[in-house]
Write a structure and sequence with these properties.
The chain is α+β, with helices and mostly antiparallel strands. Helix content is 50%, strand content 20%. It has 2 helices and 3 strands; from the N terminus they run H-H-E-E-E. The chain has helices spanning 5-55, 60-71; strands at 81-85, 94-103, 116-125. It has a 3-stranded antiparallel sheet with strand order 1-2-3, with helices on one face. Strand 1 (81-85) and strand 2 form a beta hairpin. Helix 1 (5-55) packs antiparallel against helix 2. The longest helix has 51 residues, at 5-55. The chain is rod-shaped.
């Protein structure tokens, strides 16, 4: 025996009402992970660009400015800490740029509001 049409529609509505919040939660979690991953990749790229600038002999303020310029889309407030090593090294010696960032958690909406520590380091040889 078949159920009346109106009753089947009500059942589908309840199923959607139960499944939709879980699906939206999953989509938001994936988006948050994507944001963290993109920030990490930007940090790696900026550390490489900074190390390259330091390796070719640019002064420290110019290197820091280059790193900040590279990170401007993901860190407009300039919260990334920049550490330069080997500023006065001789040609052939290593130079290093270390970046550290307490990335604001994209999961604060579920109670995970602690900042996520992101790190990047790039080493090159002075030219």
């Amino acid at each position: 025996m078949r159920a009346p049409k109106g009753r089947a529609r009500g059942q589908a509505l309840i199923e959607v009402a139960l499944a939709l919040p879980l699906l939206l939660l999953l989509v938001r979690a994936v988006m948050g992970l994507g944001q963290v991953h993109a920030a990490g990749l930007a940090l790696i790229h900026a550390s490489r660009e900074g190390a390259r600038a330091l390796a070719v002999g640019r002064p420290a303020p110019a290197v820091v400015a280059e790193v900040r310029r590279q990170l401007a889309p993901v860190d407009p407030k300039g919260q990334v800490q920049v550490v330069l090593e080997g500023e006065r090294s001789e040609p052939g010696e290593p130079v290093r740029v270390v970046l550290e960032w307490a990335y604001p958690s994209p999961f604060a909406w579920v109670g995970l509001g602690e900042p996520l520590p992101l790190h990047a380091m790039a080493t090159m040889r002075r030219e």
